[in-house]
Each structure stands twice: as structure tokens, then as C-alpha cells.
Amino acid sequence: MSFLFEKKTEHETLCEAAIKAGRTAEAVFHAAKAADFSFALARQTGGRVAERYLAVAESWLDIAERLRAQPFPSALSASPRGYSSPSALSASPRGEGVSEASAADAEFEIAEKPSVSFSDIAGMADAKAAIFDMVVHPVREPEKARALKLKPGGGVLLYGPPGTGKTMLGKAIAHEIDAPFFYASGAQIRSKWHGESEQRLSRLIQSAASRPVSVLFLDEVDGLLPRRASGSSVVDNRIVTQFLADIGGFRESANILLLLGATNKPWEIDEAVFRTGRFDEKIYIGLPDAAARLGLLRIHLSGVPLQEAFDFDAWTARLDGFTGSDIVGLVHDAKRSTLRRSIQDGGEPVITHGDLEQALATIPSSVTDRMLKQYEQFRQQRFG
Ligand SMILES: Nc1ncnc2c1ncn2[C@@H]1O[C@H](COP(=O)(O)OP(=O)(O)O)[C@@H](O)[C@H]1O
Ligand SMILES: [Mg+2]
Predict the structure, then answer these.
(1) Could you give the CA distance from residue 295 to residue 165 in angstroms, rounded to a whole number?
(2) Where are the alpha helices (DSSP H) in the chain?
(3) Which of 120, 185, 350, 373 is the most interior residue, by most CB within 10 Å?
(4) Which CATH topology does 118-287 take?
(5) Is 278 close to ligand 1, i.e. is its CB under 6 Å away?
């Protein structure tokens, strides 16, 4: 939980800095992230505290929206980190309005490669291998793929409990291949686009599909393409129908679109989405196994002073049942208490078993057996 809090604070700070520097696109990004983490905190807490986080999340969304309403081109060219695509920039001279399609490009195309790569992700050997086969190899080696008459493209849906690294894995693909990468998260889109979600999603798909090769990562697909039902909103029904039409139409194109989805709640996705054949591969991302837990500990404790005879194996065993996100949070917590202790007693900051022990006492594992059963049941019923 303190990990979420830390991320929230980080994005709040970055957002404020970006606003000061006039980098609007970047500010919008961080405001939305701050809102995401506040929502996550609200979900993890309860009562009054949750209410406060919800209010904070709401106000960050509000800020994001107001920032977005500002003139676009100047904000884009002022952004050194480049959340915009060069093509969108050159197509729109300063001061002129940006066309809707290139605005969608600029908004969702990740021009700067994320720093996270496959090597930062512990475990998930099967998922990584499947993604390499479907997504990475055909794009890296198009000649060989063509020789084999292997039509690249297709889709992968990553599903499983929250905090298991699905978003991280999806984003890491941008790092691995040299192709335009579009990222949009369901919750974000729905809250920002209000009544026009389906047109905006449609434009996003078209932007991606207009490139010879591109990757479109739809995170939190459940929020974007919820189950249509007689009782559900007109908007929900429309957005799913529109998505099916856009994705269906794309099949005829010679361009290559790699569709990637991630969700914690696969049962909330409209069933027709699976029938389009676009998510040919469904990969369950479960709790990290022992090797992955050891990897997580090593990644986050490497180069950090540890007590003598620090027992990685014992901690790997102790953390069975914890998600990747839990483990990262736990290590962060232990680091903070180590720092506090070393400031108090003037000693060297060295992480001990006791520090981790203390952190463990305050952070329960976030996934229950009941949740895991739910995924298993879903897998058997729907993909079995
Ligand atoms: N297998 C993993 N390897 C490394 N870090 C992980 C892993 N799983 C989770 N994490 C950590 O947990 C955080 C949250 O993971 P995230 O990708 O947002 O989970 P999900 O999308 O499945 O809910 C990541 O940013 C990362 O720090
Ligand atoms: Mg996620």
C-alpha cells in the first residue's frame, strides 16, 4: 500500500513540475497517473480514508481534463520528453489546430521508450516466450517471418490478479521492438472521454492501424469493453460494438497491428470481444513462483547494503502467495525503515532480516485464495 502511495506522490510531484515548465502533455500524463494510484489506494483502504483518496483521484482527473483543454500544439512542442509523435508535430504547424487523428496519436503514442524492459521483469517465462513468438520476433525479423509465410500480428490478452506485472509486461514490449507503440488504459479513457469514448477509441485504433506495423496496448480492457447487457448503459453498448467493427475491419488490411490487452477482471469483458479472433492468445499471469520471487528480491535489493548472510532463499519461501507488487512494496517499506533507523542511531543504512520482518507485519498479501479460484473457474469455463 505504501508503494501505491509513493507512486501517487511521485506522479503528483512530476505533474506539478511539468505544469510549471509548461509541458502540458506530460502534466496530463502524470495527473492521470496520480488519479490512477489514488483510485488504487481507495480500493485498498476503506471508510473515510478511501473516501479521501477517491476525492483526491477525482480532483486529479479534473486537473488532467482542464490541462487537456489547453491549446495543444504549444504544449506538445514544449514537451522535451516527447509524449508526442514527430509526425503529429510536423503535420501541425504552431498555432493551428491539430487534427483529431493526430491528436489521438499524440495522446496515446509512447514516443519515448519506457525504461522498463523484459529483463526487469522477474519470472513469467511462458508469457515472455509467447509474446516473443507473436509480437517481438515477427517485427524484429520481418524477412524471416515472410519467408515462412507467417502472418505477423494478432493479439494477446494478459489476465490475472492485480499487481502481477501485466501492465509492466505490456509496456516493456515498447522497449523490445522498434515500432510505434500506443497505450491506453480503460479506466483512464472512460473517465476522460465521457460521452465520446467510442469515437475516440475508434480514432485510436485507426491511428495505430494506419502504420505499417504498430502495437496497441489496451490496459484494463474490462473498463473499456464491458459486457453488454440490456441493463447496461447505451455508451457501454456502443463502445463495444464500435470496437468490434474497427477491429473486424482491420483484418483486411496489409498493415500489421499487434493488439495487446490486460485485465484483472476478464469476466467483465464482453464475450464478443473474444470471438473476434483478435485475442488469439490468452495468457494467465498468476502469482510469482519461487524463481520469480527470488528474481524480484534480487532486482530490488541488488547493490543495496544487506546484513551479513542475508537469506534470499528463506525470504523467497516466506513470500509465497504474495504478488510482485506486494513484494516490491515490502522491500520499499523495509528500505524506508532502514533509513529511519540509520538516521536515528547514526549507523550505516544496512537492511536486516528484522527490517523485512517489520514490513511484512504491516503488509498482508493482496490476493486471496478466493480470488485465485475465480480466475481458475473463469479459465475453465471460457478458455478451457
Ligand atoms: N514479475 C514482476 N517483476 C518485476 N516487477 C513486478 C512483477 N510483478 C509486479 N511487479 C511490480 O509491481 C508493480 C505493479 O505491477 P503491474 O504491472 O501494475 O501489475 P498489474 O498490471 O498486473 O496489476 C510493477 O510496477 C512492478 O514494480
Ligand atoms: Mg495493470
Answers:
(1) 13
(2) 2-21, 24-44, 47-68, 72-77, 86-90, 100-108, 125-131, 137-140, 142-147, 166-176, 186-193, 197-209, 221-224, 234-250, 271-275, 290-301, 312-318, 324-345, 353-362, 369-378
(3) 185
(4) Rossmann fold (3.40.50)
(5) no
- Ligand nearest the Cα of residue 165 is 1
Is residue 194 packed enough to be buried (19+ CB in 10 Å), middle (13-18) or exposed (0-12)? Answer: exposed
Ligand 1 contact via 122 beta carbon (within 6 Å): yes
CATH 1.10.4160.10 corresponds to the domain 290-362: no
Burial of residue 15, with CB atoms counted within 10 A of its CB: 0-12 exposed, 13-18 middle, 19 or more buried: buried
With a threshold of 0.85, does the pTM exceed it?
no
Q: Is the CB of 334 under 6 A from ligand 1?
A: no
* Residue in 116, 156, 168 to alter for ligand 1 test, most ligand atoms within 8 A of Cβ: 168
Burial level of 205, CB count in 10 A (0-12/13-18/19+)?
buried
Domain residue ranges of the chain, discontinuous segments joined by +: 2-79, 118-287, 290-362
Kindly state if the Cβ of 288 falls inside 6 Å of ligand 1. Answer: yes
Ramachandran sector of residue 124 (left: φ over 0; alpha: ψ -120 to 50; beta: rest): left
Domains 118-287 and 290-362 share a fold: no
Give the SS3 label for residue 109.
Answer: strand
- Cβ pair 209, 255 in contact under 8 A: yes
- Measured in angstroms, how far is the CA atom of residue 252 from the centroid of ligand 1? 35
Q: What is the pLDDT along the chain (384 residues), one digit of tens a residue?
A: 578 888 888 888 888 888 777 778 888 888 888 888 888 888 887 777 777 788 778 878 877 777 776 643 333 322 223 233 223 222 222 233 334 445 555 667 777 777 888 989 999 998 899 888 888 888 888 889 889 988 767 788 999 999 999 999 988 988 888 888 899 888 777 777 666 777 888 888 888 888 888 889 999 999 888 887 766 666 677 788 888 888 877 766 778 888 899 999 999 998 888 876 678 789 999 999 999 999 999 999 999 999 999 999 999 999 999 999 999 999 999 999 999 999 999 999 999 999 999 999 988 889 999 999 999 999 998 877
Place of cell 498482508: 364
